[in-house]
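In this supplementary section we document a worked example of the pipeline. Step one takes a protein sequence of length 324 as its only input; no multiple sequence alignment statistics are reported here. Step two produces a three-dimensional model, which step three serialises into structure tokens for compact storage. The input and output of this example are shown verbatim.
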Amino acid sequence: MTTTARPETSTMTTTPTAPAGAPPVVETRGLRMSYGSRDVLRGVDLDIRRGEIFALLGPNGAGKTTTVEILEGFRERSAGEVRVLGTDPARADDAWRGRVGLVLQSWRDHRRWQVAELLTHFATYYADPRDPAELLELVGLTQQARQRVDQLSGGQRRRVDVALGIVGRPELLFLDEPTTGFDPEARRDFHDLVERLAREEGVTILLTTHDLAEAERLADRIAMLVDGRIRACGTPTELARRAAAQAEVRWTTADGSPRREHTADPSGLVWELHREAAGPIADLEVRRPTLEDTYLHMVHQRGQVDDEQHTDFPAGSATGEAAA
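The serialised model returned by step three reads:
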């Protein structure tokens, strides 16, 4: 397993479809973790499909890091079932670790190495590594091949981290807060790379981030972990629907007065406004619920859920098949 550190949109093909009946790449059932008397994870169910970008969101202390460390095989769980690439990470061998790539939050210290030399060295640890020259092109560092790592910009260093994470052709890639501190251009380039890995190469990616725009931009599905439980899982649209987040409609009346109204049926309200005005509506604007609206709605529900009751927002074992 390559452990690396932390370092963004072009048109991509659709996510490769896993064969019918194929097992999830990541599967947990009733995952629990306690530190002494404190329960950190309280029955987490997850299914992550092959080739998808899956984002795990949650406030500090929700259990995201603990969940990911258990999936990576770095931490023993207290209870529950976990399968990653068909194996229990707690009993994984070196062959399994070679199928997993990590891009951790703090960047790895290889500052005195030239970029190409570093990738060539890491490639020797794998039976079927990527060609270092092709890898440099993939991450956009061909021009920096002979530069030392400490001469690179922050965004370029982060690309090195990703290159180290995928040099062994992992089937599953963990990205932990990958773009913290990036400028907008570096973030966009990194998002392009992540999408290319998933859409064109079928790499399954588990992303943890506090950047809600990044999660909404990249993820096929999003799980919200609050107080050690998955409160909901699905696409951003599905999550907004489950949270009953309302759209905001703004317009200006015939006498010039600004108006706004929150509604679960913005199309219906706009139709009524057009019908009443018998024509165009001045300054009409519809603001639909964002992932941030949904996230804040669910986080503010924390503490209101009974210990034996998971949520009012069905998570459907995070399979995306929950009832809306």
